[in-house]
Fold:
Amino acid sequence: MALRAQFSHAGPGIQVRQRIDRRGAAASDYRLYGSPATKKLPQVDAELCEHCGNCTRCPYQAITLNRNKVPCFDAALCIGCSLCAAAGRQAIIFVPESAPKAKLVQMVLYGARVIPVRGTYDDAFQLSLEYTAHKGGLNRNTAYHPLTLEGKKTVGLEIYEQNRFKVPDAILVPVGDGVIISGVHKAFLDLKAAGLTARLPRLICVQAERSAAIHHYIRTGKYQNARRPATITDSISVSVPANAHLARRAVQESRGFSLIVTDREIVRGQRTLAEKTGVFAEPAATATVAALRRLQGTDLLGRREQIVLLITGHGLKDVDAAARFLRFPAAVGPRPDAPL
Structure:
C-alpha cells in the first residue's frame, strides 16, 4: 500500500497570494506575469532561493543558473508549466508516534519534515487537515485529496492487464480507511464504461478484528467508529475511516462481502505467504491470506473461481511486527566442528 502516513505539502507560491517567508522552500512559484496575448513566465524570489538547482531539471531545458546560482528562464523555451515551482516543494508528514521506525527511516531519508503526533493515525490525519487549513499547502491525504483515489485505482488496472485482460471473479482487499478498495472498484467501473469488460469482480473487504468500522457498516448499514483500533496491522489500523461510504458502496455494487480476521490469523498468514510464495509482506497485507484461509470450505467462494489477493505492502516496512513472533537461532562458534 502504499505508505500509510499523513502527507501535506507546503511552500510559497502554491496559492497565488500566499507567501511563506521560510528559507529552504521553492524560490520559483506559480505566479506568472504577462498579458493574455503574451507567454507567461515564472518569477523568482532570489531571497528565498537556496541555489539547490532542483528547478533546472526542466524537461524543456528552459532554466539555467546565473553566476550567483539564481535561476534564469529562457523565454523561447519556457512553456509556463510551473514544474520548476513543484520541484522545490517541501513534504511535511504527520505520523502517529507509534509508527514503525522502518517507515520513518524512509521518510527522513527522502528529505521530508516528519512530525510525530502523540495519538493515532486519526489524530495525525486531523492535524494535517488543520495545518493546511491554517498555513496553506496541498494536502494529499487519502480520502481527502480526490486524485489519491485515481492513483489507487491503478492497481485495479494492473490486475486486469496482468491477468491477460480478464476480470477475476473476486479480489480480497485489506481495508483501513477504504481508499484502496474504492480505487479498485473505480478501475473496473472505468473499464466497463469503456466497453472493455462486461462485469465487475466481487470485492471482498478484509479488516482486522479490532479495526473493523467499515466491516460493521457493511453488515449492519449503521456506521460507528472503531473504539480501540489496537492491532498488529499498522497500515489498516484506523478508528474513523475517511472513505467508509465509498468503500461500502464498492462492496455492495460489486456483489461482494466483508469479513474480519484476528491478529493471530494475520501473523500465521504472513508466515504462510513467505514460506509458500517467497513474498514477505507486512501484516496489513497478509490479512487477505488469513481471510482466504478462513473462507476455505465455505460457499462464499467457488472452488473454480479465480481469486486475487491484494498484497499491499512489503514486510520491510514493519520488520518489528514480524520479529515479535519469531524465534532466532543461537550463534555457533567459527569452527568447522561447531555443532549446527
Observations:
- The first helix runs from residue 83 to 87.
- DSSP finds eleven helices and twelve strands in the chain.
- The two ends are 39 Å apart (CA to CA).
